[in-house]
Amino acid sequence: MEIRVSDMMAEEIQLSDAERVTVDQLIPIKKYNKGQVLLQAGEVAKACYFNIKGCVRSYQIKDGEERTTQFYVEGEPIASLLSYLNKTPATHYLECVEESTLAVLYYENEQELYSIHPKFESLCRTSIEQEFGKQQEILQNYLTKNPEERYLMLQETRPDLLHRVPQYHLATFLGVQPESLSRIRKRIALKSRS
């Protein structure tokens, strides 16, 4: 069965037939290969995405090392928001960790969608507000918890990532080296056996 963005949106808001047609024309669904880069640092983001299937990570390069800042899985929006809205170069990369199926919203198409059907602007605003709240939580936890506590929280709130994402990406997301993550996992396993 073919996936359509209008069908996914219809779960959130009621759409007329005309709105469904417009949405499906302006928000195509594309497949991306594992390892494919959606955005490079220094480029201006021309699109936002919605993850239908797969996993995408955001990362920066600091002192020659990749540092993962976020993972996006099914049902989550993906955006380099400042770059997209302000037309400024992105400071990070977006890369598919798995083969991914994404709904793609180009800036020009977004503006056209808003002008034809203004109610989509409030839907997008709500999505951005929810994502902003999640990002605040991530930052707060990163600043106030040690790596082991961050790992335990990840284990509790996003256990799927522990099996889907390479350990070296998880390590940089938690702010540690892969060897340190191995030690954290061993310590936690020993505690759980006691």
SS strand fraction: 15-25%
Roughly how much helix do the residues carry, as a percent range? 40-55%
Provide the structure class: alpha+beta
Average pLDDT:
90
Low-confidence stretches: none
| Tally of strands | 8
Kindly provide the radius of gyration, computed on alpha-carbon positions and rounded to a whole number of angstroms. 18 Å
Shape, per Cα inertia axes? elongated
Total number of domains: 2
Instruction: Quote the distance from N terminus to C terminus.
Output: 49 Å
Structure write-up:
With 194 residues, the chain is an alpha+beta fold. The chain folds into 2 domains: 126 residues, Jelly Rolls (Sandwich); 50 residues. The chain is built from 9 helices and 8 strands. A 4-stranded antiparallel β-sheet has the order 1-8-3-6. A 4-stranded antiparallel β-sheet has the order 2-7-4-5. Strand 4 and strand 5 form a beta hairpin. Helix 6 crosses helix 9 and helix 8 crosses helix 9. The radius of gyration is 18 Å and the shape is elongated. The protein starts with a helix and ends with a helix.
Quick overview of this protein structure:
The chain is of the alpha+beta class.
